[in-house]
Amino acid sequence: MAGIRPPPRGLFDLARGGRNLFPGRGFRGRYDDGSTGQARHFTGIVVATTYGGGDPTRWISEHLRLDSAGAPDGLLTDEGIAFATGVLGGRIALDASSDWIRDNLCRPRSLDSSLKLAF
Q1: Which of 58, 84, 99, 116 has its C-alpha lying 20 to 30 A from 51's C-alpha?
Q2: What is the pTM for the complete model shown?
Q3: Which residues are registered as beta bridge partners of 106?
């Protein structure tokens, strides 16, 4: 995920920011920083949270990676931590995890753009 190997090497991958294996767009406006790296950011936060917990992950994000709390990356960090702790704690079922991501992170598709009408 996001170019992060299993521990212990994964800790080095996290420190250097992983790799952007899935560049793209489509995040809700509050999480969109204009880059194509938000999927990598979210995934890296999820992995980091599973390694060390939410509080250390948030501290690293804010103090070492300089992701401001109210900025898109800071808000996405909060969502990544919520997702990881929700799955680990059983509040988000694995078979519902893709729905959680779609419902919480993805920009809603408008009815006009999702329907293709042929006349």
Answers
A1: 99
A2: 0.81
A3: 27
